[in-house]
Design goal:
Largest sheet: 6 strands, antiparallel
Low-confidence stretches: 120-128, 148-155
Structural class: mainly beta
Radius of gyration: 16 Å
């Protein structure tokens, strides 16, 4: 599952945990509630921008949780990009995979994608013992417990 936090001008405006795909965009019409999750077929949809915020498309981003603390971000807009935290632009119609936590930008909205908050980190959830990574590339993909604690401390 995946937890999504939405920020508007550095203020937290929405937070929800999803088990499947989520689409984010601006209101399709004046009746669609802002920051309210609703089912749209087999996926969830959340309007994170008002209908007059044209820096966000009506259908802008599809977020899909993946195994191993990763997510796939697909830009479903026909013309507006999605800015990634590293400064790259995810062009309309393309997708990328990111390691969680990750931050993307839809217009003026910052969207943080992360593994759902656990009250206490529990290691009992692992199906089998996991050895620590030996190479640096693997170590960067799997943050240490200290890294996890510091990420939660900032939130």
């Amino acid at each position: 599952s995946l937890q999504i936090h939405v920020y508007d001008r550095q203020q937290a405006v929405y937070r929800e945990t999803f088990s499947g795909e989520v689409e984010l965009g601006r209101q399709r019409d004046g009746k669609e509630k802002l920051y309210a999750c609703r089912k749209d077929g087999d996926r969830a949809r959340v309007a994170i921008a008002r209908i007059d915020e044209d820096t966000v498309s009506r259908d802008h981003a599809r977020i899909e949780p993946l195994p191993e603390n990763r997510a796939r971000i697909t830009n479903i807009s026909s013309k507006v990009g999605i800015r990634l935290a590293d400064g790259r632009d995810l062009k309309a119609g393309t997708s990328t995979e990111v390691a969680l936590p990750a931050v993307i930008y839809l217009g003026r909205k910052a969207v943080r994608l992360q593994v759902p908050d656990a009250k206490e980190p529990s290691l009992r959830g692992l199906e089998a013992p996991v050895a620590p990574p030996r190479d640096i590339a693997a170590a960067q993909r799997f943050p240490t417990l200290d890294g996890i604690k510091s990420m939660h401390g900032r939130g």
